[in-house]
Design goal:
Helices cover 24% and strands 27% of the residues. It has helices spanning 4-8, 16-30, 38-54, 57-64, 88-96, 125-128, 273-278, 337-350, 364-373; strands at residues 115-121, 130-141, 157-158, 167-174, 177-184, 193-194, 207-218, 227-230, 246-252, 259-261, 264-272, 280-286, 289-295, 304-307, 323-330. The protein has a four-stranded mixed beta sheet with strand order 10-11-15-14. It has a three-stranded mixed beta sheet with strand order 1-9-8, with no helix packed on it.
């Protein structure tokens, strides 16, 4: 095996820059695109292998100590036909400004874009879920050409400039001499074909803007900010490409009576003072029908009556949350003469203690918050 330093024509104590300069000089002379001879090809492989070893500190140290200069794996990362030459693409890019081989023409078919729309829901719709027919303004596949982009009865024709390859090869003079570079064909824009008679409906795009109806089953338990994904329901792709996805962002409207706390529903029940004192049962209207509320005698403001399984259906799981009713005792503000006499008689008979201060604990709203969370 030839000495790597001799192959590159440098001294054994040559610096990294000197090794790089020597390799560049030899590569310009021996590269197969510049010098196609068999001898030049073999020398180029030897020069490249020598450079790979000596430009790497660990491999060079191993080589100087009598090793073969390999850090493991294959001899140089290539076979006789340059098929597995690991750094060939990078080297070619460095010296010639383009890829070493054509990847073929571009495809006109592309995936469509995703779409996002907001869905406004009422609180009663999310208890059990709902069905919607959504009107979406989006791109759909052209019905005239079915996504081919061509007028019916015609087809794309092969580009006579690049002959269907999508690229143009050009000889460019450089420091290495004449080298071949490739670039997308300007006539067909890299597609390899030309649409000579584009569809008049979609102007050769294969899709048009239109309003379409999307049926949606919205599950129970969704909440504001939640997004539902509908694969394949977004924008149609160009030239008959696959559709993107449609995302639905939920927005639950404010309700004047009921509010939501997780899977529970919250509301306030205003109770006359006499009903709170004596107790009674009451029928009140909930979001999904009437419910019976039982007030025990002596009910106080801020007490919570829990009605089981009358909240929101759980999004992930079975069953429903609860309906929690906060009692608010309403004290009369205007009394006639007779009512005042009765209240005064009740107060005299009841002999309630005089109002007095007590240690501060929590406000009413804090108490309610703790009770709900408890």
């Amino acid at each position: 095996m030839a000495d790597h330093y001799e192959v590159l024509g440098v001294a054994r104590d040559a610096s990294t820059d000197e090794i790089k300069k020597a390799y560049r000089r030899l590569a310009r002379q021996l590269h197969p695109d510049v010098n196609p001879g068999a001898d030049a090809s073999e020398r180029f492989k030897s020069v490249t292998h020598a450079y790979d070893v000596l430009s790497d500190v660990k491999q060079r140290d191993n080589y100087d100590r009598g090793g073969n200069g390999r850090s493991g794996g294959g001899a140089a990362g290539f076979d006789g036909n340059f098929g597995n030459f690991g750094n060939f693409g990078d080297i070619f890019e460095t010296f010639f400004g383009g890829g070493g081989s054509s990847r073929g023409p571009r495809s006109r078919r592309e995936r469509g874009q995703d779409a996002l729309i907001r869905v406004d829901l009422d609180l009663d719709e999310i208890i059990f879920g709902t069905h919607r027919e959504l009107e979406v303004d989006t791109a759909i596949t052209c019905a005239t050409c079915n996504g081919t982009c061509c007028q019916p009865g015609t087809a794309p024709v092969t580009c006579d400039i690049c002959h269907g390859t999508g690229t143009i090869q050009r000889a460019v003079r450089s420091l290495l001499g004449n080298v071949m570079t490739s670039s997308p064909c300007g006539s067909c824009r890299g597609y390899g074909t030309i649409i000579a008679t584009p569809c008049v409906t979609c102007q050769g795009q294969g899709r048009v803007r239109a309003r379409r109806t999307v049926p949606v089953d919205i599950p129970a338990g969704v909440d504001t900010g939640l997004r539902l994904q509908m694969p394949g329901s977004g924008e149609a792709g160009p030239a008959g490409g696959p559709n993107g996805d449609l995302y639905l962002e939920m927005k639950v409207r404010h309700h004047d009576v009921f509010s939501r706390d997780g899977d529970d529903l919250l509301c306030t029940l205003e109770v006359p003072m006499t009903d709170a004192i004596l107790g009674r049962s009451a029928t009140v209207k909930a979001l999904d029908g009437d419910i019976e509320v039982e007030l025990r005698p002596g009910t106080q403001s801020a007490e919570i009556i829990t009605v089981k399984d009358r909240g929101v259906s759980r999004l992930r799981g079975n069953g429903r949350g609860d309906l929690k009713v906060v009692v608010h005792v309403v004290t009369p503000t205007r009394l006639d003469h007779k009512e005042r006499e009765l209240i005064e008689a009740f107060a005299a008979r009841h002999k309630a203690p005089a109002p007095a201060l007590s240690a501060f604990q929590q406000g009413l709203f804090a108490k309610l918050r703790d009770r709900f969370r408890g």
